[in-house]
Design goal:
The chain is α/β, with parallel strands linked by helices. The chain folds into 2 domains: 199 residues, 3-Layer(aba) Sandwich (Rossmann fold), CATH 3.40.50; 101 residues, UDP-galactose 4-epimerase, domain 1, CATH 3.90.25. Helices cover 40% and strands 18% of the residues. The chain starts with a strand and ends with a helix. Helix 1 crosses helix 7 and helix 6 crosses helix 8. This is UDP-glucose 4-epimerase.
C-alpha cells in the first residue's frame, strides 16, 4: 500500500484530501499542529501533532512513516491577515516548507504535491489565466507561495526533488457525505459568511468592493468544489509515481462568479434573501481571477464535476446546517 503524509491534514482542504487518498487505496498520515485545523476532521489515518517549522518533529514523522509522497497543505491562507502580519506568512508558509523539503530530501523522500495558489499571479494581464501567465503577487500570502514555488524549482535542479504544483483558484463547498467541511476561526471565507448571514438572524453579509472593473462591479472568482480539487491531488500523486520532474497545474473551472451572483446562489439555496451591506475593497484583492485549466485536463485527466456554484453552495449549506 502506498503511503502519503498530508501536512495540514486536519484543515479544510487537507482533511478532504485525506479522505480522497484513503478512498483511492492509500495509507494516510495527517500531520498538523491543530492551530487552524480540527482533531475531529482526522478520520482516515493517524494524526501526528507537530508544527511545520519544528525540524525535529517533521524529521521524526518522516522517519517513522517513510511516505511515498508528501501532500503539503500546512499554510496560512488569509489574504487580509497576510497584509497585516506578513511575518507569520513568510515564517509558516515559506520557512516551514523549507524545513519540510530539507528533511524529506535527507531521508530520500523526493515526491511532493504542493498546495499553491492563483494569488501568485497577482492582477491578471489576461484572462482566463493559464500556467504561463507571469507571476507577480500583490499580497504577502501570494508572495509566500511564490517563494515556495521557487524553492521547489531550485531543489529539483539541485537535488532531484519531484513535485506537482497545484495553483488553486477558490476552493469551496464541503464533502457531500457530510464527514468533513469548511471551518475557520475567525471565518473570513466568502461562502461560509454568506451562508451564515442567510441562516442566522442578525447577521449581515458585507460585499467588499462594488467598483471593480467587472460585469457588476463586484469581484469575480473561479470557485472549484473541494471534492473536485482533492481528486486532482490523487491524480497528481499517481502522476508523480510514474513521471518525475516538476509539473504545474491550475485548478479551476474557467468560469467566474461575481460576489453578487454568489449572493443570489445562497439566496436560492437557503430560501432567504441575504441581508447585505457594502464596504470598501480589501487590501490585496484583484478584481478577477479565473483559471484556464486545460493543462490539468490534458495531463492529469482532471475535470471538475461538482463545481457549479449552486452545487457548491448546496453542499456548504448542508454542512453548516448539520452543525447548528
Amino acid at each position: 500500500m502506498k503511503t502519503v503524509l498530508v501536512t495540514g491534514g486536519a484543515g479544510y482542504i487537507g482533511s478532504h484530501c485525506c479522505k480522497a487518498f484513503a478512498e483511492s487505496g492509500w495509507s494516510v498520515i495527517a500531520y498538523d499542529n491543530l492551530s487552524r485545523g480540527w482533531r475531529d476532521a482526522v478520520k482516515w489515518g493517524p494524526l501526528v501533532e507537530g508544527d511545520i517549522c519544528d525540524v525535529a518533529a517533521v524529521a521524526a514523522a518522516l522517519h517513522q512513516y517513510r511516505p511515498d509522497l508528501v501532500a503539503h497543505f500546512a499554510a496560512y491562507a488569509y489574504v487580509g491577515e497576510s497584509v497585516e502580519r506578513p511575518e507569520l506568512y513568510y515564517r509558516n508558509n515559506s520557512f516551514g516548507t523549507l524545513v519540510l523539503l530539507e528533511e524529506m530530501l535527507k531521508i530520500g523522500v523526493d515526491k511532493l504535491i504542493l498546495s499553491s495558489t492563483c494569488a501568485s499571479y497577482g492582477v491578471p494581464i489576461r484572462s482566463p489565466i493559464d500556467e504561463t501567465h507571469p507571476q507577480s503577487p500583490i499580497n504577502p500570502y501570494g508572495w509566500s507561495k511564490f517563494i515556495v514555488e521557487r524553492m521547489v524549482d531550485n531543489l529539483s535542479d539541485a537535488h532531484g526533488l519531484n513535485a506537482v504544483v497545484l495553483r488553486y483558484f477558490n476552493a469551496a463547498g464541503c464533502d457531500p457525505d457530510g464527514e468533513v467541511g469548511e471551518r475557520h476561526e475567525p471565518e473570513t471565507h466568502v461562502i461560509p459568511l454568506a451562508i451564515e448571514a442567510a441562516v442566522r438572524s442578525g447577521r449581515i453579509f458585507t460585499i467588499n468592493g462594488t467598483d471593480f472593473d467587472t460585469r457588476d462591479g463586484t469581484a469575480v472568482r473561479d470557485y472549484v468544489h473541494v471534492t473536485d480539487l482533492v481528486r486532482a491531488h490523487v491524480l497528481a500523486g499517481e502522476k508523480l509515481l510514474r513521471d518525475p520532474g516538476v509539473h504545474v497545474y491550475n485548478l479551476g473551472t474557467g468560469t467566474g462568479t461575481t460576489v453578487n451572483e454568489l449572493v443570489d446562489a445562497v439566496s436560492r439555496a437557503s430560501g432567504t434573501r441575504l441581508p447585505v451591506a457594502y464596504g470598501p475593497r480589501r487590501a490585496g484583492d484583484p478584481p478577477a481571477l479565473v483559471a484556464a485549466a486545460g493543462k490539468a485536463a490534458r495531463e492529469l485527466g482532471w475535470m471538475p464535476k461538482q463545481s457549479g456554484i449552486d452545487r457548491i453552495v448546496e453542499t456548504a449549506l448542508a454542512w453548516y446546517r448539520r452543525r447548528l
